[in-house]
Amino acid sequence: MATSARLTLDPSFRIAPVEPRLFGSFVEHMGRCVYTGVFEPGHPLADADGFRTDVLELTRELGVTLVRYPGGNFVSNYRWEDGVGPVEDRPARLDLAWRSLEGNAFGLNEFMAWAAKAGVEPMMALNLGTRGVAEALELVEYANYPGGTRLSDLRRSHGVDKPHDVRLWCLGNELDGPWQMGHKTAREYGRLAAETARALKRFDRDLSLVACGSSNSGMPTFGSWEAEVLEATYEMVDYISLHAYYDPSDGDADSFLASGADMDHMIRSIAATADHVGAKLRSRRQIKLSFDEWNVWYQSRFHGESSLEWAEHPRLIEDDYDVTDAVVVGSLLITLLRNADRVGVACQAQLANVIAPIRTEPGGPAWRQTVFHPFALTARHARGEVLRVEPECPTVSTARYGETPAIWATATHREATGEITLFVVNRDRRNPCALDVTLPAGLAPVEHLELADEDPSATNTAADPDRVVPRPGTGLRLDGRRATLTLPPVSWSIVRFAPQE
Ligand code: AHR
């Protein structure tokens, strides 16, 4: 039986401008994200730098604006110096995070060259696990100082004349996690992050810095970690990080489909925590949120780092995504946009092969996973100002989060063209929903696409890469200022409205 819902799109209900940095991704030295993912010298489609041009093209099509590098857990035992200079002189190392052998053929300068070709902003993570302030400063000098000092001249001797001028830096990764090399208490990390931030801002006060928040909202110190870290760093950092992975594998599909509501709660909780610290410190600054790892991850299929045998770029967590996963990814993007006034950076983890929208085979093809599509369409069409959209709709009962709204939506408005784009998910697994949209006068639909399938477990594969693609929606009607459409069960839809000629 169809349910019904309604919402209003009004350009005066503004939340905040769409921040391009919300469409970030993540390239970690993990599994096959770098090697045989973005970088595969000898591949028939590799360019002169060894970058796979098929992956570069897909990255551009995905609409990624920013890429976090080089980890992740990897960064916490990484020596950036190993990855620069003549390739034949670079050492092989043990990566303890993923029990992998790291040959270092790809490092900082290769990443920056790749990022320039992909047209993305680099977001660099520093090792504050096994290393500290001195090494962070050395990396920033190597990367960002024009020349005339030992490390900037070293970069120039490596063939990179102009500084990379990286603006966005993560002060470590997930240091609250006992799995992290150099794991710390909030007190230890807060001090180290503060001293590193102080030194980096002395180097360049306009750098944007991200302090590590909790690894996930289930950590025993969730909330108190952020409070203690921000008390130590508040005046020196710009963002606090959030990470969340949603696992479909426990069979509770209703809760899984409500992941966007959980992400929303997490964002509000950390924003409130940050504001509480700001109030205690009598500060006028507002800390923004960097949701720099988010995605769907079949985490319970991964048996942990200690179960891994030493290997070079092994196949790690190459999850195959289905239609339901894509709907959840679409709803997580909706949540990020709904919180555009607080979330300033977001990175889907990761870009290629490792829980990724882009899959590749070594020596073979690259293809789009199902989750590629809602990301690409959102990144392409979410422009201008995010509008507050509050659907009146039924709820879905979930074991994990209680009653959650069945319809999850956001919209953006481009003042210059008058266009409004609606992004909407029906989380109900059983019922389609008849949606009634009230529009400003003079707008008419120009495009309506939906991602849904008779078989919500359908996936894309190397043999059938376009099994799941967005298809034109049907049955959209306009009557004056009222548009009506039907949202299939478990669906993600985009509807673009533009001024009528
Ligand atoms: O993205 C995979 C891993 O998940 C990252 O290395 C780590 O930061 C997180 O726990």
UniProtKB/TrEMBL annotation:
Domain of life, per lineage: Bacteria
EC annotation from Swiss-Prot or TrEMBL: 3.2.1.55
Single GO BP term: L-arabinose metabolic process
Keywords: Carbohydrate metabolism, Glycosidase, Hydrolase
Domain Alpha-L-arabinofuranosidase C-terminal residues, every copy: 292-491
Residue ranges of the region described as Disordered: 453-474
Catalytic activity: Hydrolysis of terminal non-reducing alpha-L-arabinofuranoside residues in alpha-L-arabinosides
Cross-referenced Pfam families: Alpha-L-AF_C, ASD1_dom
Any GO MF annotation of the entry: alpha-L-arabinofuranosidase activity
The protein's assembly and partners: Homohexamer; trimer of dimers.
Family: Belongs to the glycosyl hydrolase 51 family.
Protein name: non-reducing end alpha-L-arabinofuranosidase
Organism: Planobispora rosea
